[in-house]
Amino acid sequence: MTEQAKSTEEKVAEAGTAALELANVDDGTRSAALRNVADAIDANHERILEANAKDVAAAEELLEAGEYSQALVDRLDLSASKLDDIAEMVRSVADQEDPLGRTLEARRLDEDLELYKVGVPIGVIGTVFESRPDALVQIAALSLKSGNAVILKGGSEASHSNRVLYELIVEATADVPDGWAQLIEAREDVTTLLGMDDSVDLLMPRGSSEFVSYIQDNTSIPVLGHTEGVCHVFVDRAADLGMAADVAFDAKVQYPAVCNAVETLLVHEAVADEFLPAMVERYREAGVTLRGDAATREVVDVDPATDADWSTEYGDLELSIKVVDSLAAAVDHVNAFGSKHTESIVSEDADRAGTFMRGVDAASVFHNASTRFADGYRFGLGAEVGISTGKIHARGPVGLEGLTTYKYHLEGDGQLVATYSGENAKPYRHEEFDGAWTPGHLSDADE
Fold it and tell me: Tens of pLDDT along 118-150?
């Protein structure tokens, strides 16, 4: 049966079988397969770019018709240098420490009765993502390294690119259990996937807030949501204004189409007159469309900002500016309008920076650094399957650790619960100790 002829149910069933096998494949084999993927990407630039060109051409037609945004087209477009970066990312994932079989805790309940908390894969992961074909490779690489089978559903706008990348990944990973990665393409396949709570262990959608909410509202499978990025840079009254200008510029202009780009610049009123004129001119020279509140427009000539602007993810060369009268006002604004993604303060006062970082409710909070650093690769995680703006299971850039869970292994020597119950019950020790689980092994550290 061809890949296209298989139903979603059949693909998920194959992934479930593969997940059980993959959990027991050694790290050397999994990492070698990932290096094969990187080599395959390096060797097939022409094939990938030819497929991507079809997607980009179709997207540009819809851009001209007003149906797509420039940000979507930018995220969709691949280049030889981007493919080099993707291959390097895959190798970086391969080089990460194996997250499986790691002993997270060891506790001695009694002599020769030891409990180990051990890292294991989650199982079958379903992913639904939009626009970026490199996301397919990131997600697949992290899933394989962490021992998970994965169902991949990219957006129709990237269908040619996704198909070629998926085929290369499958061809390059012939030494791991067949069926570990599955590609679904039709919208109705997503509906089917959302109903398979008995077979899929985790869903990870990447896209707009509305998109993620739709997934959450239409499934009983646990969802690790990666929603929009309404990020802020706050220029404090104690900021080095040269540094602040560089950070604020990088956070907006370096790559505006991504979720960790800044959308609102907050400026303390004590430095607004000195900071804003040159900053606004620098933004304008880079083609940034600017909006500001009344206090901002008293200092610089920009368009008025509306209430909607404060909660908008532009994903483009657009920025809103607000002047605030205090550190507390900056924190309040971020907590009211931010998406709990990434926030940054520029300040030479460590106490004020600490107050901001403790007070802001976000997955990542930076001091004197661009919001663009919120990324799995830059964090040293190898890559990311997304940035979780929730607070359960994983938060911020989700790398290998976010794709694992744990189970308990108890090593004993014939002990019975009855020994520890009743009038003459033997007490438990409950002692933490340094030790790694191996089958049949009991620590002799106290003997």
Answer: 999 999 999 998 778 999 999 999 999 999 999
CA 291 distance to own-chain centroid? 29
Is residue 119 domain-shared with residue 188, that is, in the same domain? yes
- Please answer whether residues 341 and 311 qualify as being in contact, where contact means their C-beta atoms are separated by less than 8 angstroms: no
Cβ atoms of residues 38 and 94 within 8 Å = yes
The DSSP annotation for 365-421 comes to: EEESS-GGG-STTTTTSS--S-EE-SSSS--EE--TGGGEEEEEEEE-SS--GGGGS
pLDDT (average), residues 298-308: 96
Look at the pTM and tell me if it is higher than 0.90: no
- Does 422 fall in a domain? no
Which pLDDT value is given to residue 355? 95
- Domain encompassing residue 345: 231-379
Residue 405, C-beta contacts closer than 8 angstroms, at least 6 positions apart? 119, 120, 121, 122
Which residues lie across from 223 on neighbouring strands?
A: 203
Whether residue 16 is found in the same domain as residue 138 = yes
Reported in sequence order, the residue ranges of 11-145 that DSSP labels E, i.e. its strands, are 103-110, 113-121, 124-129
154: tokens are 């990219």
Q: Are strands 364-367 and 342-346 parallel, antiparallel or unpaired?
A: parallel
340 and 218, same structural domain? Answer: no
Beta strand ranges found along 303-403 (DSSP E): 303-304, 318-324, 342-346, 364-367, 387-388, 396-397
pLDDT beyond 90 at 379: no
3-state secondary structure 250-282: HHHHCCCCCCCCEEEEEEEHHHHHHHHHHHHHH
Q: How far apart are CA 357 and CA 241, in angstroms?
A: 19
φ, ψ for residue 213, nearest 5 deg: -60, -40
CA distance 48 to 167: 11
Number of domains in the chain: 2
Query: For residue 157, what is the DSSP state?
Result: G
> Token digits for 186?
């039709």
Are 310 and 177 in a shared domain? no
For residue 445, being part of any structural domain is answered with no
